[in-house]
DNA sequence: GCTGACGTACGACAAGTGACGTAGACGTCA
DNA sequence: TGACGTCTACGTCACTTGTCGTACGTCAGC
């Protein structure tokens, strides 16, 4: 959709814990003649090891890493942050099935240069790779829409919560009681209850049970294993 | 691992809402010379429409449908049941990222002839297709392990619940209060509380908030959008 | 026919939860 | 400096939730 293909070959590292998905992505990329898959990794840690080993062997680093978010060992957000810090020349493009605002936000905040959903077609993936290689940012249309929605309604959703309320919400979503939350955050149970009450009000919820679902819906926490 | 390849070509229908996953699966299958991909579908409804249209045109139905579980419009379990009923010659093999006991159970119960996880390699997919084509059942090793674990400990997990308790648990996991659960099930609120109390005890949980997480962990309900 | 599991229901009680209001300390920003 | 937002904390009240014990009808299995 934008960004003319670079003249030189773009190296790509594919990171996903599902072999099938890696295979599909690689198939997409093989169709592009100025893109070369330089490696695959099954989780964030492997991705970093792969980059590290390329570096010590003096081999060229990939220009782009195409990365899933939910992975064992090290998830995509963490890996993205780590890559941005240790391998700043590598652009990270997220490719995931989750389109939750919080996750998108977190990924972009940690240096992601693109965000695709897994129902994206080959052309979207190509566009995202080219954009990233050119230091542009590519966002899936659906993703962009949600981001804009979020910015238009800044007071709705978890975005309207204070950071403390968000801490509390995360703990609620882990199944903790108010007492446990208080202990965890080193505050009194009364205060914990104040936060719970406030966040329920802001989110328009009637119980902590619903808060668990809301936290997951917004991508604030992962659904249980 | 088992099941010698059939002599004739095996037609396969690939059903997944993620284009990238379909592409990966198709790439796997293209490497097998006695397997032919006869169609792709993005959800359960499309899959049924596809089979229907092949039928009315008098074209041969696929021998195997490779199907994701979580899809929009119609999910995999429902589609599997429908296919088993209306197109009994088609064997359904599940290919999904969720390895929750309840889901596995539901899929097999509704007529699935195989269950793979998405981190399966090409050889697993091939083995599952061949097995299904030969009226055998192929289970991913990890999946089989969980099934066996489940059968060995029949009283633990949601399997130890009565069907009524399971109904209640599902409603809890939707964020309903005891009063709402009672209304929904047309029982008194006291009775609803009895069920809640009993199921919490059986699952070793301390609150309905934890029950929400347990229900998802076991695959009794889907995580929210 | 008896036993046991299940679903239903009640009462009473304790604990947990959520909605009020109030208030001080601290930081930021105009 | 003053206004504002945030985190902290307390008290109170009403409601919800969870536990325990009890009970009865039904249905399947021995």
From TrEMBL, chains A, B:
Domain called Response regulatory: residue spans: 11-133
Keyword Phosphoprotein: yes
Keywords from the named record: DNA-binding, Phosphoprotein
Claim: Protein biosynthesis is one of the keywords in the record: no
GO biological process: one example: regulation of DNA-templated transcription
Residue stretches making up the HTH luxR-type domain: 154-219
Modified residues (4-aspartylphosphate): 68
UniProt xrefs under CDD domains: LuxR_C_like, REC_NarL-like
Molecular function terms, GO-annotated: DNA binding
Family matches, as SUPFAM superfamilies: C-terminal effector domain of the bipartite response regulators, CheY-like
Pfam family, any one: Response_reg
Protein name (record): DNA-binding response regulator
């Amino acid at each position: 959709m934008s960004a003319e293909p670079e003249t030189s070959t773009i190296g790509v590292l594919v990171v996903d814990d599902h072999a099938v998905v890696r295979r599909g992505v690689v198939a997409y990329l093989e169709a592009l003649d100025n893109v070369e898959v330089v490696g695959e990794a099954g989780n964030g840690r492997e991705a970093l090891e792969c980059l590290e080993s390329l570096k010590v062997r003096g081999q060229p680093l990939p220009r782009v890493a195409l990365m899933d978010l939910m992975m064992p060992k090290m998830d995509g957000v963490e890996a993205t942050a780590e890559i941005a810090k240790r391998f700043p020349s590598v652009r990270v493009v997220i490719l995931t099935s989750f389109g939750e605002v919080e996750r998108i936000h977190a990924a972009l905040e940690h240096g992601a240069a693109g965000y695709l959903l897994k129902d994206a077609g080959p052309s979207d993936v190509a566009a995202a790779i080219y954009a990233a290689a050119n230091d542009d940012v590519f966002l899936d249309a659906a993703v962009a829409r949600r981001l804009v929605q979020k910015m238009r309604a800044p007071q709705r959703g978890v975005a309207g919560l204070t950071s403390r309320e968000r801490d509390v919400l995360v703990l609620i979503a882990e199944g903790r009681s108010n007492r446990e939350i208080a202990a965890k955050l080193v505050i009194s149970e009364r205060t914990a209850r104040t936060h719970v009450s406030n966040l329920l009000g802001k989110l328009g919820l009637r119980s902590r049970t619903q808060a668990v679902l809301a936290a997951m819906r917004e991508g604030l926490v992962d659904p249980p294993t």
